[in-house]
Specification:
The structure holds three protein chains of three kinds.
Chain A lengths: L18 E12 L2 E12 L3 E5 L6 H9 L6 E6 L2 E2 L5 H6 L2 E3 L12 H7 L9 H6 L2 H21 L14 H14 L4 E5 L7 H18 L2 E5 L3 H7 L2 E6 L2 E6 L1 H5 L2 H8 L9
Parallel strand pairs in A: 3-8, 3-9, 6-7, 7-8
Antiparallel strand pairs in A: 1-2, 1-4, 4-5, 9-10
Helix pairs in contact in A: 3-6, 5-6
Chain B lengths: L12 H4 L6 H21 L2 H27 L7 H18 L5 H20 L7 H21 L12 E2 L3 E3 L2 E3 L2 H23 L2 H11 L1 H7 L3 H28 L1 E2 L6 H14 L4 H25 L3 H22 L3 H15 L5
Antiparallel strand pairs in B: 1-4, 2-3
Helix pairs in contact in B: 2-7, 3-7, 3-10, 3-11, 3-12, 4-5, 4-6, 4-10, 5-10, 8-9, 8-10, 11-12, 12-13, 12-14
Chain C lengths: L1 H31 L6 H19 L3 H24 L7 H23 L16 H7 L5 H23 L1 H11 L1 H6 L4 H27 L5 H15 L4 H26 L7 H12 L14
Helix pairs in contact in C: 1-6, 1-7, 1-9, 1-10, 1-11, 2-3, 2-4, 2-9, 2-10, 3-9, 6-7, 7-9, 10-11, 10-12
The chains are: A alpha/beta, B mainly alpha, C mainly alpha.
Chain lengths: 276, 352, 298
């Protein structure tokens, strides 16, 4: 395993590039509830972008918008220069966006290997009839993708559990498998929704290492939601702060850390102070 | 001791991906195939063939079809018998109206007809789920059977609404004896089971299971729910259609609507539940169970001197009781019990 | 025109009977989250037991009814102990399949104990046209049907009061919402289930007697339960008023379709029309008229 590069130090793979995803004035509401109000920020290629904020700030909704799960009522999504506001889940997946979920969304009835293989779905070209007869093309394809899945299994160090049904795995390993499934799609943009929630220190370190390695080795752009401030400040290049559906901070970790609004949002206002 | 896997290492993905990775399993299956193909036709009585083995194979195929839809794709269906009926009527019509049509082609076309109906009635599955979908499949069951009874063209304008099917023949050879019918059914069912197994372990099978387990996440990965569900309906109905055609041609000898009633749908559902939801082996085990149980109960009632209607009511009670029993004790059915047995066998004679 | 009204009324009244069966479903679903496929079998069993007691022991209807109620309560106990308790945390679909097994079991048991001949059930209401309506409006409506409607209305009012005004009712609603939470506040889950299934059994008895008096007590009674499914789809699975409205719609549309559309396509529409209607309805409103909208969080 390669050594982790401390953030901020230039490294050949992590040359942060042009803006790959641009979100302009996104507003999203459900019925009467406004989840997101006029949010704008961008994500550069190869960077690690964190979205932080108190509970209920709308972070997951933001990911859902990027992913095509929700269509924003207002605003524009520009992906690689093309306007993709009306993208649905399938379109997002085809466009190279993969994600993990806050509450693990693994396919509980399948093994680890099968779950990761599902991530290869969009790369499979044979149809069901070819697969039924399992000769020639279908066979070759299945084996080829199996090899790819095994690479990811090696990368995430989960070889021993590859044939275990995921329902039987402990929480931390399930999260890792979910990461593997997202990686199997070889995404350009990886959305991680609280990848370290519910983990102990060791598991968090492992997950950090994997996230950094993914960014290093594959050049994947990462947008992640995370509550652990230590992690966020350590591994992210830039941070967006949301509160009550509005953006209250945007910049490098240091900039955001000293932003008054951010401090107020997290720590609350002292009695007697007026809002800035 | 006999069932040790030690020493059987897999050095390539190809060998790891085999259907039967353990050598002992392969030997067992080959033996079973040899027995089924060679010994059984020679040694079994016509009664055993016609009344037990042939229906067992046909129901296994139907249970396989239902398992694809309900077990692997998670769409509960109570309309299995209707799809079987479509297959039967369609095959009959193809044979009757296109002289000289190859028998297998007629069966395939019957299956395809059932698949088309399956797709049509599967369309609601995008909006509806769970028991609502089950209720919708009841609509399929009643409506399709009604259609088949009301359209005289389909029964070749038969006065009674019941038609006797033609004798099956291929290349001039008539499949008239129980042995011949048995072998034909065996080959068809075995081949289709193999195809099903291949589908299940490939991407299409994973797509079904993904939609079943978490359709939201599946969509995010790039599976398309409507297409996946409709494909499940189509393949499942195809299997049930062929099973229905075989039911008419190789077992009943007639095509009649009463044979494809709601009762049959329930029976096949029971086969799937008892045999094991989401398991190919389970379809066979469940079918065997349901075919053998009434015979066993009849013998029991006979030996106890009870009247025959006792036996049929007892049958209902035992079926119902067993469903509940299996759901409580082993929701994954006989197939899981089989798996547990095999795992114990791997350790035998050691306890752990 | 009066023929239309007759058919309509006839349909509405048979709809009332469907509603009666559907109410049994709703009760159990509301209070235990179980879709009780065996409700139809329970209707059959209750009716058969009642008639069987009358025939075998020669007692009057008014003695047979309480005895049957006792039997239904015993059945509820048995079901809770043998089926519900072992399956307490299983997914809904498992419980649904268990009730399918239960249905078969009860059907077999009923016929094993009481035999399978069709029996006649005599209720002290006659199936004759109501004279008042006949004279004044020239409409042929059966006395029997009207009584059934009144019984149904009374039952609904009683059940409504039970659910909203009593402690037991509140406990039932709590259990329907969340088993674990109800247990946590000390609601005796198992006792509640026995209560619910007993009440459902009582409703099944009423439905069974009315249907049985009209059509004779026979195995076909269980198919009426299947008809309750479209009723529930229309009315939503958790609403008693919904079951009534659904029942009326299904009953009326079924009769009207049979009478007006039936002759054009060869008859026998009643067998599938309600289901197809429900199916089409589901496409527009997946949770029924009165059902609760299911919101899924990602």
């Amino acid at each position: 395993m390669e050594m982790i590069q401390p953030p901020g130090q230039p490294e050949t793979h992590r040359r942060i590039g042009e803006v790959i995803l641009d979100l302009k004035n996104i507003s999203l509401s459900f019925g009467g509830v406004k989840a997101l109000t006029d949010i704008s920020f961008n994500v550069r290629q190869h960077e690690i972008r964190a979205i932080i904020g108190p509970n209920g700030a709308g972070k997951s909704s933001m990911l859902n918008v990027i992913n095509g799960v929700y269509r924003p009522q207002q605003g524009e999504i520009v992906l690689r220069g093309q306007s993709r506001t009306n993208m649905d889940c399938y379109g997002a997946a085809k466009a190279g966006i993969a994600r993990t979920f806050q509450n693990i969304a693994l396919f509980k009835g399948m093994t680890v290997l099968d779950n990761i293989m599902t991530g290869r779905n969009l790369k499979m070209k044979t149809n069901f009839l070819q697969q039924a007869f399992y000769l020639g093309a279908a066979r070759r394809e299945e084996i080829a993708h199996r090899a790819k899945a095994e690479e990811i299994i090696d990368f995430l160090e989960i070889q021993a559990i590859r044939k275990t049904p995921v329902g039987r795995l402990p929480y931390g390993l399930q999260k890792r498998v979910e990461l593997g499934r997202a990686l199997a799609a070889e995404p350009e943009i990886l959305l991680l929704d609280e990848p370290m929630a519910g983990m102990n220190v060791e598991e968090k370190q492992d997950m950090c290492r994997f996230i950094l390695d993914v960014n290093d080795q594959f050049g994947t752009t990462i947008v992640l939601i995370e509550h652990d401030m230590g992690v966020v400040m350590d591994i992210s290049d830039r941070v967006v702060v949301l509160d009550y559906g509005k953006k209250i901070g945007d910049g490098t970790p240091d900039e955001v850390r000293s932003n008054e609004n951010v401090i107020k949002a997290y720590l609350g206002q002292a009695h007697g102070e007026t809002a800035a | 001791m006999l069932y040790r896997e030690a020493g059987q290492f897999k050095t390539s993905y190809v060998s790891d991906g085999q259907i039967l990775p353990i050598r002992q399993d392969r030997i067992a299956l080959l033996t079973l195939i040899a027995v089924a193909l060679l010994a059984v036709p020679l040694l079994a009585s016509p009664y055993l063939l016609s009344a037990i083995l042939i229906p067992f194979l046909i129901f296994s195929l139907a249970a396989l079809g239902l398992n694809i839809l309900t077990g692997y794709a998670g769409q509960l269906s109570l309309g299995t018998a209707a799809f079987m009926a479509v297959g039967a009527y369609a095959s009959f019509n193809f044979v009757a109206r296109i002289p000289g049509i190859p028998l297998l082609l007629a069966f395939i076309l019957g299956g395809l007809s059932a698949a088309i109906v399956g797709i049509a009635f599967g369309l609601p599955s995008l909006r509806i789920r769970g028991f609502y979908l089950a209720a919708a499949t009841l609509a399929t069951q009643f409506f399709v059977i009604w259609c088949l009874t009301k359209i005289p063209y389909l029964t070749n304008y038969s006065a009674s609404g019941v038609v006797t099917v033609q004798t099956m023949q291929m290349f001039g050879y008539q499949f008239a004896t129980p042995q011949a019918k048995y072998l034909l059914v065996l080959v068809i069912v075995s081949l289709m089971a193999l195809l099903a197994k291949n589908m299940i372990r490939s991407n299409v099978g994973r797509s079904w299971m993904a939609i079943r387990d978490m359709d939201m996440a599946a969509e995010v990965i790039g599976f398309r729910p409507l297409r996946t569900k409709l494909l499940a309906f189509a393949v499942s109905s195809f299997y049930c259609g062929v099973a229905g055609a075989l039911y008419a041609f190789a077992y009943l000898g007639t095509v009649e609507p009463e044979a494809y009633s709601l009762d049959l749908s329930f029976r096949i559902l029971f086969m799937v539940i008892i045999g094991g939801v989401g398991s190919i082996l389970g379809s066979f085990l469940g079918a065997a169970f349901i075919v053998l149980l009434p015979i066993f109960l009849n013998m029991l009632a006979h030996s106890l001197g009870l009247a025959t209607n006792y036996a049929s009511n007892l049958e209902l009670m035992v079926f119902g009781g067993l469903i509940i029993f299996f759901l409580i004790v082993e929701p994954h059915g006989l197939a899981r019990l089989w798996q547990i047995g095999k795992e114990k066998l791997r350790l035998w004679p050691f306890p752990h | 025109m009066s023929f239309f009204i007759e058919v309509l009324l006839g349909g509405l009244l048979s709809g009332v009977m469907y509603a009666l069966v559907a109410i049994g479903f709703v009760l159990i679903y509301k209070a235990s989250g179980v879709f009780n496929f065996a409700q139809g079998a329970m209707v059959f069993f209750a009716a058969l037991t009642c008639v069987g007691i009358i025939d075998k022991f020669g007692v009057s209807l008014w003695i047979a009814i309480p005895l049957t109620i006792l039997v239904m309560i015993a059945l509820a106990f048995a079901i809770e102990r043998v089926v519900l308790r072992p399956l307490v945390n299983q997914p809904e679909i498992t419980l649904f399949m268990a009730t399918i097994g239960l249905a078969f079991f009860i059907e077999g048991l009923a016929q094993l104990v009481w035999g399978s001949q069709v029996r006649k059930l005599d209720l002290p209401i006659e199936d004759v046209p109501n004279e008042y309506l006949m004279e004044h409006f020239n409409i042929l409506v059966s006395q029997f049907d009207m009584t059934a409607a009144i019984v149904c209305a009374l039952l609904v009012i009683a059940l409504g009061l039970l659910f909203t005004r009593t402690r037991v009712g509140r406990a039932l609603r709590a259990v329907a919402d969340d088993h674990q939470a109800a247990l946590a506040v000390g609601i005796p889950l198992q006792r509640i289930w026995v209560v619910v299934w007993s009440v459902a059994g009582l409703v099944a008895l009423v439905a069974g007697m009315l249907w049985g008096a009209r059509n004779g007590v026979q195995f076909a009674l269980t198919f009426i339960a299947l008809k309750a499914l479209p009723v529930l789809i229309l009315g939503g699975f958790t609403s008693i008023p919904g079951a009534i409205v659904g029942g009326l719609i299904i009953g009326a549309s079924e009769k009207l379709a049979e009478v007006y559309i039936g002759p054009m396509v060869g008859g026998g529409i009643e067998g599938w029309f309600p289901y197809v209607l429900a199916l089409l309805f589901l496409l527009v409103r997946p949770e029924g008229l009165f059902g609760e909208k299911i919101i899924r969080r990602i």
